[in-house]
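Why run this: before we spend reagent on co-expression, it is cheaper to look at a predicted model of the complex and decide which construct boundaries make sense. The entries below are exactly what would go into the expression plan.
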Amino acid sequence: MPEKQPTFPEVDRVVHEPARLAILTVLSACHSADFTFLQSATGLSKGNLSVQLTRLDEAGLINVDRVLHRKTTRTSVALTRLGKQQLNEYWITMKKIQGQGRETARLKSHAELI
Amino acid sequence: MDDHRRLTFLTRYYYHLQGVRFAPLWIAGLFLLFAWMPHYARYDHIGWGAFCYALGGLLAIQGLWYAMATWYYRRRFGWLKPDPYWFAKQKTKGPLWWILLLSITVWAIYCRANHTAAFFPYFLAFVVTQPACNADNPPIRRIIYGVGAGLIAASALLNRFAATDGAIFFATLCVIMLALGVADHLLLLGLLKPQRENADA
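The model came back. Tokens follow.
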């Protein structure tokens, strides 16, 4: 009988992607931020950041607010209640996976010693 | 510092790291001190009229610089609206620190009002220790603020021995605060990332 492999909990793919996770991390530490700050903090290019923001907006995790100011558009982004919830759940899942990983490694090293 | 901690710290302390905005205030302090000291040493006429005009002018320069620096930071690095700020929540053992600070404030005011001791410098030194006690800060910022607070407190002690009526302390305070402002600005530049393209769309 093959050895039973540990099953890790599923992670939210929308949140898990590094660029989107960076954006959500920034937004979780403030009330709202503009496009330039998100770009400076995450190091993403304008196009890439715009695509990631659209993705997160479609998933309902962020709220994008565009205001016309002196012929330029100011984009302000804030985390929604769902976004906060999803990000918290993501970190809880990651901690669970980390715990399971440690446990598996411990059992494996124990079995090798025997 | 890992990416998650960097992003959280940068966002939470973005405005704290814009220390250069207050640079003219400390330079003006030093300027006024050196302008005032020779008069004080000779016990002659200080020239309060000129002193007040100089102070007003320097404060106006500070205001202008502050507005320009704010505009620069906003245009260069962006803008954010911070979460409602709760001082005591920003650090480990926060409430204890703030209770101590309030107690020292009351004690400093009492000492000043009764002319029993020049307690104010120690109070200011204690205020500067706040980032040093804050576990959110990277170790380098904690060390720099700790050293700064130590130097301010030491200058107040030296001031008492040398009987310079606050000059050594005031000069040290201005230099330290200016240096801390520049250090914070450099830390901000270090925390901002160069553009990357490796994330999949």
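The longest helix of chain B spans residues 48-77. The mean pLDDT of chain B is 77. Bring this page to Monday's planning discussion.
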